[in-house]
């Protein structure tokens, strides 16, 4: 009786997330989770009020995180915390005791807070430390405009706990408000309702009214400006990048429309992209309402904007319907690659979509090769207990996940596939799902209903690629392969045949150089097409990879590679290049470059490369 009364009061202001939390708790439906200390079936957060100060001189965020909680008459609530100083904790306004558990290298520490059976609010006063993994503090030199410092956060997968003490599980959703104080010449933006202009006093207020998991809380602070694309889309960037970004992403509204036509209304009101400094460790990150993006996608010709389609697609697969645990990560990424490819097809046609799909297909083959001694890691459903969730974040989730859905689409037909996906998103909106529940839903609503047999279990729970995988074809790529073969056979390149090639065709051409390609051949291609000084970062990356692999040193390419690795922190790009050095037996050169480049990298990139090169 008493419990019900308190739940009702707690939940009045934040109906949707609270109802869900209540419903989940009464059914005890939060599943076992190995990457969070939280015990949400006892007590779970439903709303966060964040009040913080961003101090660039000290490189510290400090303040108070206040939570509304749904309390199952518990005597404690457990949050996740890593490398944070916890200064004071209150429960319903009264000081209370707390304890930080033993430090786990991957998970950090549990923060156990004593509460009363009827406690409704807790508040934690804390500050970040120099060991924080989510934050990257950049000097002015590391930005595009080079006049002001910059800060951004990266939460996925389990880094939010290094800048906010929180229940850091993808199953736990909450709404948030934030007040953020920054130096008055800078602007702050979050994965929330955002300002379009700077305030005079550096104080910013944010609201995220849709419940989200902790990994999607994000903050960026810098000397940035906003430019509108449509009523609900636009870009944030530093001054020198703003126009370029606006041009590059001018199809953003069309992408949102195409996505809505496929799988239902966009539920987050605004869709903006912020172009970050080049050290941003990912291509993009789907922070709700505000995708974070690398400047390396700005090629001047919209050729790499499938990244925006990808992050937009996460507004459904990932942000609306979230993987319950990191073992189900393929539900986020595989669905998103499928959806991304459909958006690209809707905007630019089947040929472009198939080229993207084939590039992914080749990435998948490379990944299978690199995981050949770890077949369990090639299953869609993973078991990452005791491991860093980052270990599962490779091409399997993305490209095997995609291939599964594409194969399924070919089996059931597009119309049925789309109706099914639409209903799947609707049913699970603002909630989480795991692989097993997805399989049950798929069987009931698509396969059994239509009397279709499909080897879903094999695709999801077995290693490798099943025999029935869809065969993806592209005339454009077949043509590229022919041109490459004829160059190899004759040493003559048919320049006219390549004059209309898109960057994807060039990437396919370069990636498929055979082992015995000669230095002279590389030199001739470089002289004809200027790959070393290409302004397309994807072409740069694959060309530098081949240059390293074949020991090509023409046109000053070694300096260009070093320059690239010193400025770009995108993990996928730099990992590819350091790996190429290692494979070519040039690890010493890689280490020499890394020595100067490492201070420019975000922790997720630095950790990966530390391990790859065996240094730190
Ligand atoms: N959510 C991911 C980025 C991510 C994955 C961050 C795992 C932390 C852990 C994002 O949506 C993504 O997939 N980015 C890709 C872009 C893409 C077009 C495949 C990237 O960064 O390369
Ligand atoms: Zn993604």
List the helices and strands and how they pair.
Blueprint: H1 2-11, H2 15-26, E1 43-55, E2 60-71, E3 76-81, E4 84-91, E5 94-95, E6 98-100, E7 109-114, E8 121-128, E9 135-138, E10 150-153, E11 173-181, E12 187-190, E13 203-213, E14 219-222, E15 224-230, E16 233-238, H3 239-248, H4 252-263, E17 271-275, E18 284-285, E19 290-293, H5 306-313, E20 321-323, H6 329-348, H7 350-370, H8 395-412, H9 414-427, E21 431-433, H10 435-447, H11 456-461, H12 475-490, H13 503-511, H14 519-529, H15 537-550, H16 557-567, H17 571-583, H18 587-597, H19 603-613
Parallel strand pairs: 1-11, 16-17, 17-19, 20-21
Antiparallel strand pairs: 1-2, 2-8, 3-7, 4-5, 4-8, 6-7, 9-10, 10-14, 11-13, 12-14, 15-16, 18-19
Helix pairs in contact: 4-5, 4-6, 5-6, 6-7, 6-8, 7-8, 8-9, 9-10, 12-13, 13-15, 15-17, 16-18, 17-18, 17-19
The structure holds ligand BES and zinc ion (ZN).
The site of zinc ion has 4 residues, from helix 6.
Provide structural commentary.
- The protein has 616 residues and is α+β, with helices and mostly antiparallel strands.
- The protein has helices spanning 2-11, 15-26, 239-248, 252-263, 306-313, 329-348, 350-370, 395-412, 414-427, 435-447, 456-461, 475-490, 503-511, 519-529, 537-550, 557-567, 571-583, 587-597, 603-613, and strands at 43-55, 60-71, 76-81, 84-91, 94-95, 98-100, 109-114, 121-128, 135-138, 150-153, 173-181, 187-190, 203-213, 219-222, 224-230, 233-238, 271-275, 284-285, 290-293, 321-323, 431-433.
- It folds into 4 domains: 3-222, tricorn interacting facor f3 domain (Immunoglobulin-like, Sandwich), CATH 2.60.40; 237-308, Zincin-like; 321-461, Neutral Protease, domain 2; 476-613, Serine Threonine Protein Phosphatase 5, Tetratricopeptide repeat (Alpha Horseshoe).
- 39% of the residues lie in helices and 20% in strands.
- The protein has a 7-stranded mixed β-sheet with strand order 5-4-8-2-1-11-13. Strands 15-16-17-19-18 form a 5-stranded mixed β-sheet. A 4-stranded antiparallel β-sheet has the order 9-10-14-12, with no helix packed on it.
- A hairpin with a 4-residue loop joins strand 18 and strand 19 (290-293).
- Helix 4 (252-263) packs across helix 5 (306-313), helix 6 (329-348) runs antiparallel to helix 7 and helix 16 crosses helix 18.
- The longest helix has 21 residues, at 350-370.
- It binds ligand BES and zinc ion.
- Zinc ion is lined by residues 310, 314, 333, 336.
